[in-house]
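Marked as duplicate of an earlier ticket. Keeping the data here for the record.
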Amino acid sequence: MCYESSQLAYRIYKDAQRIGASEEELAELRGKWHDLENDRPQLYYASGFEHPELLGFTRRHHRLELETFYWGLIPHWVKNEEQALALWNQTLNARGESIFEKPYFRDAAQNERIVLPLTGFYEHQYRLGKSYPYFIQQKNGENMLVGALAAEWTNEATGELYRSASIVTTPANTLMAEIHNKPKINGPRMPLLLEEKNVEQWMSGSEQEAKELLHPNTTIELKAHTVHPLRGRKSLGNCEQAQEEFSYPQVHEDPTLF
């Protein structure tokens, strides 16, 4: 699954260009992007269990917009804050095969499919009872365009509005099957990676058109390297060094990987 990711704001304006934003849309996005770049911390490492705000592209009223979403989807029908807090650790990811059936995700899958431009994501590989973290990104250096679901929930006690999101996952491709080798359920997984040409189909297409994209992407080339521990007392936290390559003898002495 995908519970840890990275998102650097300075790349996101380029992503709008990549997915075909109009000149008018780019003009509106430019101002918002500059504000976000200046006011928002860069996310070199973000744990979904801390529910950070992620930037995402939406298609509202036939216009491409950039919004912020708490990571961990809260459906509109959640009754109170207690229920929301109990739920959103369970909705960091949404299995693509069942998003149109599961109550947590059904409304979002039908009404608000979005795209999260991520610098990369982290996953752990298991060897001899220990886990080793990897940072995965696109070989060409561009952001990943990750399919996600969004929802809007109002805390009736405070009147506060929450926009939240869940990363859609698919079965793993060959690389991710090597890394995500101790999944909890039903085989290794990876985020839904979209090519530029499929972004509009994901955000605005019919249910059937969206389902056609719910498979492991084998066209987008990925690369991966081990990084410093992400959890516990040795964790570096949210800093640039979190993405730097870090060697573990137990991993790099084994020539069979990759």
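See parent ticket for discussion. The first strand starts at residue 4 and ends at 7.
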